[in-house]
Recover the amino acids of this structure.
């Protein structure tokens, strides 16, 4: 029964939380009023410039580079290695395999060996630097410990308990084609898989969603075209409450009094 829960119910539940959670958070962010221009300067003036800046933010974290070189190096190493590992894992998701996935396998394998290092560095940084401990919450440690556990179990699998690629592929393709199977696998693979499910389910719920949030952040996706008038797109008439102690007429009256110099 446990295996059935792990390899059938949990993956579908996780997929629903992941997709629904991402859609919900992106929808909520896109609905949040941005009544002012709050772009982080120096910023580009054209839409192409904004897209270019966002691309830079995604690929090499320039603002982190300016503020903290060591964290930048650790963060960049982590993200690059993670991407290579994820691309290597695509071999479980495709049949037949596109040739570029075959070609990336060795690079992805070495990336996997090194992946625990930057995660460990990020964890040690949080646990040892006083000013970072001060702003660290439990979620920060949870995310890092989870990533560490996923990457260490992955490396252990590769080194000591080599999994049968055909069997793993059957599990993943079975799930994708809605014909899931209940496999008989090593406990370490089951653990790796379980931790990955927790990671995927947690992704939209917490800080890891910065991956999507970046694109909807007004400080980054606005233009610095200060010569043009900024029209607040959310400036629709607001329903007025009669019991409001400070009605607009009174406010207008006070404004005109104060502009005539009388004290309010
Ligand atoms: C459905 C999702 C996943 C499955 C089925 C899966 C399965 C596996 C398997 C079977 C191995 C051993 C490979 C071998 O024996 O050569 C492995 C290795 C590894 N996994 Fe995963 N994994 C998944 C997701 C992830 C994720 C999300 C991460 C990282 C955050 C990760 C990190 C690693 C690492 C670092 C290794 C060792 C390097 C390598 O062989 O690629 N895995 N994984």
């Amino acid at each position: 029964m446990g295996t059935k829960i792990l390899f059938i119910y949990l993956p579908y539940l996780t997929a629903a939380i992941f997709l629904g959670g991402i859609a919900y958070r992106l929808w909520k962010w896109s609905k949040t009023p941005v009544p002012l221009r709050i772009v982080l300067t120096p910023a580009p003036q054209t839409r192409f410039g904004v897209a270019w800046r966002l691309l830079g933010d995604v690929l090499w974290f320039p603002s982190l580079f300016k503020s903290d070189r060591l964290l930048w190096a650790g963060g960049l190493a982590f993200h690059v290695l993670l991407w290579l590992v994820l691309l290597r894992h695509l071999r479980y998701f495709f049949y037949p395999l596109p040739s570029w996935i075959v070609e990336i396998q060795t690079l992805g394998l070495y990336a996997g060996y090194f992946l625990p290092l930057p995660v460990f560095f990020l964890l040690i940084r949080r646990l040892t630097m006083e000013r970072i401990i001060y702003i660290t919450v439990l979620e920060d440690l949870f995310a890092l410990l989870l990533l560490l556990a996923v990457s260490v179990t992955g490396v252990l699998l590769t080194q000591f308990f080599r999994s049968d690629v055909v069997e793993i592929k059957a599990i993943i393709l079975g799930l994708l084609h809605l014909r899931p199977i209940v496999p008989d696998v090593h406990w370490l693979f089951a653990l790796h898989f379980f931790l990955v499910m927790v990671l995927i389910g947690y992704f939209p719920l917490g800080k890891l969603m910065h991956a999507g949030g970046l694109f909807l952040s007004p400080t980054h996706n606005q233009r610095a075209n200060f010569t043009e008038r900024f029209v607040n797109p959310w400036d629709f008439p607001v329903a007025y409450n009669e019991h409001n102690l400070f009605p607009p007429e009174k406010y207008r009256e006070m404004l005109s009094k104060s502009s005539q110099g009388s004290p309010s």
